[in-house]
Design brief:
It contains 11 helices and 9 strands. The protein has helices at 27-54, 62-68, 81-94, 96-116, 119-130, 149-152, 244-279, 291-319, 325-349, 361-373, 378-390; strands at 136-139, 156-160, 163-173, 181-188, 194-200, 206-210, 223-233, 281-282, 285-286. The strands form 2 sheets. Strands 1, 2, 3, 4, 5, 6 and 7 form a 7-stranded mixed sheet that branches. α3 (81-94) runs antiparallel to α4 (96-116) and α7 (244-279) packs antiparallel against α10 (361-373). It is globular.
Length: 396
C-alpha cells in the first residue's frame, strides 16, 4: 500500500477477529501469538512483495524463522491445534509463500517423519529438522499423477540387500531447489505398495529443476525432481510407511493447515481492501462511505469469519483426537471456495490498482489459486465429503 495508508491497528477490529475466536486461547498462547505477529510485521511483510515479484526465496530469512521457532508447535511445544492453526493463518496473512515454505517443511516433511519414522529415525533426524538446520521437502505429486497418485504412483523403489534404488519423477515439490532432504514416496516393485524414503538431495542421480513462469506463490521454489538410480540405505526407508494408507495420516493433518491458509488469505484480503476503502477517495469522499463498498467488505469478513469458525471447531476435534478425514476434506473445500470469492471481491474493490502488486491485492489474488488447488483439489475434497454422507463413492 502507499505511504498514506492508515495503520491497521488504528481501525476498529484491527485483527479481523470479529467473533473473538482468539479469546479461546490461553494467556500463554495469546502472548506467543503477539510475538509471532510482531516478527511477521518486522521480518516478513516488508520483503514479501519484492520477493514475489522477483520469484526469489529469501534464504536469509531461514535463520530468523529458526529463532522464532515455529516448527511443530503442537507435537513438540505443547500448544493447542487452535493456536497452531491461527498462527498458520497469521503467517499466510503476512505472506502466503512463507506460509507454504513452513507448511512444506513442518507439516508435510516433518509431519512425515513424526508420523511414519521409527523412534530411532526420529531421534536421528528431528533435531536438525526442528531447528531448520536441515530443510525438507515432500515428494508425492508426479508429472502424470496428482489427485490419482494414491493408486497411480509411478516412481519405483527396488530393494537390494541393505539399500533401495529409486527411479522416477516428482513435480511441484516446494523447497526442493535448496532443501537438504526430500521425503520421496515410491511404489515398492516387490509388493506394489507405496513406501516413503528420506532422500539426501546431494545423492548421485537426484536432480531438482525450478518450475518457472508461475502466476502464484512465486517466492516458493517449486521443482521438478528426477530420480535416476538413486541409492538410499535401508535405514532411510521410513519404518512405518508401508502403504498409501499410512501416507494419508500425514495428508489428513496438512489438509487442515491449508484450510487455515485459506482463512489467512481472506484476512489478508480484508486488511488490504479495508485500508484501501478508508484511504482512497472517489467523488470527494472515502470509498468506505459508499454502501456497496461496505457490503463488499462485510462479505469478505463474513467469509473469513465463517471459515475461521469451521476451522476452530475442527482444531478442537483434532485436539480431542476425534477429527475425521471427511471433515478435513469439507473444511479444505469450503474455506478455499470462500477464499476464492473473498479475494475476487477484494481485487474488484481496488479497481485497476487491484492488478498490480504495488497495492498487494494482486499478489493475494494470485496466491489464492495455489491454495485452492494443492492438498487435494476442491472437486476431490468435495467428493470425499460426499462419499462420507452418502456411503457411495463418486470419485471414479
Amino acid at each position: 500500500m502507499s505511504a498514506a495508508a492508515p495503520d491497521i491497528n488504528s481501525l476498529p477490529y484491527a485483527d479481523g477477529d470479529f467473533f473473538g475466536f482468539e479469546g479461546m486461547l490461553s494467556p500463554k498462547e495469546r502472548d506467543r501469538l503477539a510475538e509471532v505477529r510482531s516478527f511477521l510485521a518486522r521480518e516478513v511483510k516488508p520483503i514479501a512483495v519484492d520477493c514475489w515479484n522477483r520469484g526469489e526465496f529469501p534464504l536469509g530469512l531461514i535463520p530468523k524463522l529458526a529463532e522464532i521457532d515455529l516448527v511443530s508447535p503442537v507435537r513438540r511445544q505443547g500448544y493447542s491445534n487452535v493456536f497452531a492453526g491461527i498462527v498458520h493463518a497469521e503467517v499466510t496473512r503476512a505472506d502466503t509463500s512463507i506460509a507454504t515454505f513452513m507448511g512444506v517443511h513442518d507439516g508435510l516433511f516433518a509431519g512425515s517423519i513424526e508420523a511414519l519414522a521409527s523412534r530411532e529415525q526420529q531421534d536421528a533426524w528431528l533435531p536438525d529438522i526442528y531447528s531448520l538446520r536441515k530443510i525438507g521437502a515432500f515428494g508425492l505429486t508426479e508429472p502424470l499423477g496428482g489427485s490419482d497418485v494414491a493408486g497411480g504412483t509411478r516412481t519405483t523403489a527396488r530393494r537390494d540387500g541393505d539399500h533401495w534404488t529409486l527411479n522416477g519423477a516428482k513435480r511441484w515439490i516446494g523447497n526442493a531447489t535448496f532443501s537438504d532432504w526430500v521425503v520421496v514416496y515410491a511404489r515398492d516393485v516387490a509388493d506394489d505398495q507405496v513406501k516413503a524414503f528420506l532422500v539426501d538431495t546431494a545423492l548421485p542421480g537426484f536432480t531438482a529443476s525450478k518450475i518457472e513462469n508461475k502466476i502464484s506463490l512465486r517466492t516458493v521454489q517449486n521443482a521438478d525432481i528426477t530420480l535416476k538410480d538413486v541409492v538410499v540405505p535401508d535405514f532411510f526407508k521410513l519404518a512405518n510407511a508401508n502403504s498409501f494408507r499410512d501416507t494419508n495420516k500425514v495428508l489428513k493433518v496438512t489438509r487442515l493447515a491449508v484450510a487455515w491458509q485459506a482463512v489467512g488469505q481472506q484476512l489478508a484480503a480484508f486488511d488490504v481492501a479495508r485500508r484501501y476503502a478508508v484511504e482512497r477517495h472517489q467523488f470527494g469522499r472515502p470509498l468506505a462511505s459508499f454502501q456497496l463498498v461496505q457490503s463488499q467488505l462485510v462479505q469478505i469478513l463474513g467469509n473469513a469469519v465463517s471459515s475461521m469458525g469451521m476451522m476452530v471447531r475442527l482444531a478442537q476435534l483434532e485436539d480431542a483426537g476425534l477429527a475425521r478425514d471427511e471433515q478435513s476434506a469439507l473444511a479444505k473445500a469450503f474455506t478455499t471456495a470462500r477464499m476464492r470469492e473473498s479475494v475476487a471481491i477484494g481485487r474488484s474493490l481496488l479497481g485497476g490498482n487491484g492488478i498490480v502488486t504495488d497495492f498487494e491485492m494482486a499478489k493475494i489474488f494470485a496466491d489464492a489459486e495455489a491454495i485452492y488447488s494443492y492438498e487435494g483439489t476442491h472437486e476431490v475434497n468435495t467428493l470425499v465429503a460426499g462419499r462420507a454422507i452418502t456411503g457411495v463413492s463418486a470419485i471414479v
